Amino acid sequence: MVEYAIIADKLTKKFGDFVADNAISLKVKKGEIFGILGPNGAGKTTLISMLTTLLKPTSGSAKLMGKDVIKDQLAVRKMIGVITEKVTMYPPLTAEENLMFFGRLYGIEKAELKKRITAGLEEFQLTKFRNRQVGTFSLGMKRRLDIVRVLLNDPQVFFLDEPTVGLDPITVAFIKKRIKEINKRGKTIILTTHIMQDADELSDRVALIDHGNLMACDVQSKLKRKLGKHATLEDVFIHYAGEQLRDETQKMEMAPRRGM
Ligand SMILES: Nc1ncnc2c1ncn2[C@@H]1O[C@H](COP(=O)(O)OP(=O)(O)OP(=O)(O)O)[C@@H](O)[C@H]1O
Ligand SMILES: [Mg+2]
Question: Residue of 49, 68, 136, 176 with fewest CB within 10 Å of its CB?
Fold first, then answer.
């Protein structure tokens, strides 16, 4: 029997008349690394936001480890970790102070929390910056610390929305290695990335989304084989998404901005 970490059933999100995600149904197996690919504005972050309870679907439903993302929000939140493009750390606080703060929010008991912080900082090679203000960190250090923060809560399902964007190749390689290790410890991982090589290397399966529609969902080798012997994941991406540039703006930006 396959057990699923995520079952999405016709998940739809509309912003006004605009359909950001259109009846997306997919299943993510427990213990899998699942890549979500698609052009800018395709609806990837919106989909992740619905799966992580941050956005309420307009229609459709989803379950995470058997819990409904709408009806069982709290239970879902306890089981997930989410890394978004924005790093959520307080610049004036030190690395340890930030981790203590978030760890206490997660409700982790103090002695246990200290242990987890020490192990996390060590794993992400940040031990010597433990008492340094996060405001002085490079983007790579902040991103690593953000992952340490999320892992404190020992999430069963770990969402990473473009975890390597803006990072140098050494940090990218380091983070990819850690993602694989975290997965080996039994965690289900859902990630988005625009870097096809990363998606290909990391993912067990990928979903391709375009204009809010799920275009394909399978193991990469099968998707490539359909296009020919030497097809790459980039070829698959272009095959489903076309070559048209995407210059979509946030629909809410059409409204007059306050304070301007
Ligand atoms: N809060 C919002 N209000 C209005 N429109 C939104 C909102 N959030 C997203 N959108 C629109 O929905 C569409 C999908 O956005 P989303 O952020 O999910 O795309 P994405 O696939 O994550 O893109 P990217 O690769 O650029 O991160 C876009 O056209 C975006 O402008
Ligand atoms: Mg996005």
Answer: 136
pLDDT at residue 85 in the model = 78
* Structural domains counted in the chain: 1
Query: Which residues lie closer than 8 Å to 102 by C-beta, 6 or more apart?
Result: 149, 152
Nearest CA to ligand 1 atom 31: 250
Torsion sign over Cα 52, 53, 54, 58:
positive
Positions in the chain whose pLDDT score sits under 70: 1-2, 243, 245-260
CATH number at residue 27: 3.40.50.300
Which two three-digit tokens encode residue 144? 């690593």
pLDDT of residue 86: 80
Residue 142 pLDDT: 95
Alpha-carbon span 238 to 135, nearest angstrom? 39
* SS3 label, residue 81: strand
Cβ of 41 closer than 6 Å to ligand 1, yes or no, is yes
pLDDT at 14: 98
Which domain range does residue 141 map to? Answer: 4-243
Is 255 contained in some domain?
Answer: no
Is residue 44 within 6 Å of ligand 1 at its C-beta?
yes
Q: 43 CB less than 6 Å from ligand 1?
A: yes
**CA 229 to ligand 2 centroid distance, Å:** 31
Establish if 14 belongs to a structural domain: yes
Return the C-alpha torsion angle 151, 152, 157, 161, nearest 10.
-50
239 lies in a domain? yes
Residue 187 lies in a domain: yes
User: Counting ligands in written order, which one lies closest to the CA of residue 44?
Assistant: 1
pLDDT of 252:
53
Pocket test for ligand 1, best of 11, 14, 15, 52 (most atoms within 8 A of CB): 15
